[in-house]
From TrEMBL:
Species in which this protein is naturally found: Saccharothrix tamanrassetensis
Domain DUF2345 residue range list: 181-295
Domain of life: Bacteria
InterPro entries on file: HPI-Adhesin/Ser-rich (IPR053118), VgrG2_DUF2345 (IPR018769)
Name assigned to this protein: Uncharacterized protein (DUF2345 family)
């Protein structure tokens, strides 16, 4: 991994805690004069560190593999921070792995894009934050995987949105909790051709000022041992050709000011040990060609 030492002349220096596992054939020199780091290679990019990986420029970060894949691995933690935007692009796949934690922060936007698959895995927690928008896209036949032992946080704080898109499947898994938030007046979109899985031992929170859309050709599964909260001001849409499952050992809350739509060709299952609340100022629609099951051991409320 290359970093820019701004206390000295504008030259590229190798970090003392970072080593390159595989040789890289550069296509162009990283741009130093524009306050950014650009690493472009025709072959796979491999960066491994026993402690930390922290490219932190003032403007933007660009990591691009034109032919194969990008691998970023650290025993402790990974930090990718930019005052403007972060772009990680590979023709094959992107892998970010850490035993500690992963932090990807861009004041403008964060883009992780590739043709094959995206994997973000660590033992601690995952944080992806941008003022503008967050885009995680696997354009080919594979999938998006975000896994953490502790918690997952995906946040877009400015007036834009969160988009997670895969042709195959989307998996977001955490032992503690999952938070997906579009704080400004826009939306959250999770789309997969196959299936969507959001699993947490703690709780699941999906929040947007505009709308929430979770769409899969096969099935949608949202599972939590604590509670599930889907909240926004406009509308909620959960659509699957096969089935929809929302399961919590505590409670389920789906709340918005406009309307709620849950649609599946096969079946819909909403199950909670405590209570189920689906509330909308407009209308509530739960539609299935097969069966609908809404189960709560405590109380159940559907209000429009």
């Amino acid at each position: 991994m290359y970093t820019v030492n701004r206390n000295q002349a504008a030259t590229l220096t190798r970090s003392s805690y970072t080593r390159m596992d595989d040789p890289v054939t550069p296509v162009q020199r990283p741009d130093v004069t524009s306050n950014s780091v650009r690493i472009t290679a025709a072959h796979p990019v491999r960066s491994s560190a026993t402690d930390l990986v922290r490219p932190t420029p003032e403007d933007s970060v660009r990591i691009t593999a034109l032919r194969d894949s990008v691998r970023i691995t650290a025993r402790d933690s990974v930090r990718i921070t930019a005052a403007d935007s972060v772009r990680i692009t590979a023709r094959d796949s992107v892998r970010i792995t850490s035993f500690g934690s992963v932090r990807i922060t861009g004041r403008d936007s964060v883009r992780i894009t590739n043709r094959d698959s995206v994997r973000i895995t660590n033992r601690d927690n995952v944080r992806i934050t941008a003022r503008d928008s967050v885009r995680i896209t696997a354009a080919a036949r594979d999938s998006v995987r975000i896994t953490a032992r502790d918690s997952v946080r995906i946040t877009a704080t400015a007036p834009d949105s969160v988009r997670i898109t895969s042709r195959d499947s989307v998996r977001i898994t955490a032992r503690d909790s999952v938070r997906i938030t579009a704080a400004a007046p826009d939306s959250v979109r999770i789309t997969a051709r196959d299936s969507v899985r959001i699993t947490a031992r703690g709780s699941v929170r999906i929040t947007a000022r505009d709308s929430v859309r979770i769409t899969a050709r096969d099935s949608v599964r949202i599972t939590s041992q604590d509670s599930v909260r889907i909240t926004n001001q406009d509308s909620v849409r959960i659509t699957a050709r096969d089935s929809v499952r929302i399961t919590s050992q505590d409670s389920v809350r789906i709340t918005n000011q406009d309307s709620v739509r849950i649609t599946a060709r096969d079946s819909v299952r909403i199950t909670a040990r405590d209570s189920v609340r689906i509330t909308a100022q407009g209308s509530v629609r739960i539609t299935s060609q097969d069966s609908v099951r809404i189960t709560a051991q405590d109380d159940l409320a559907l209000a429009a």
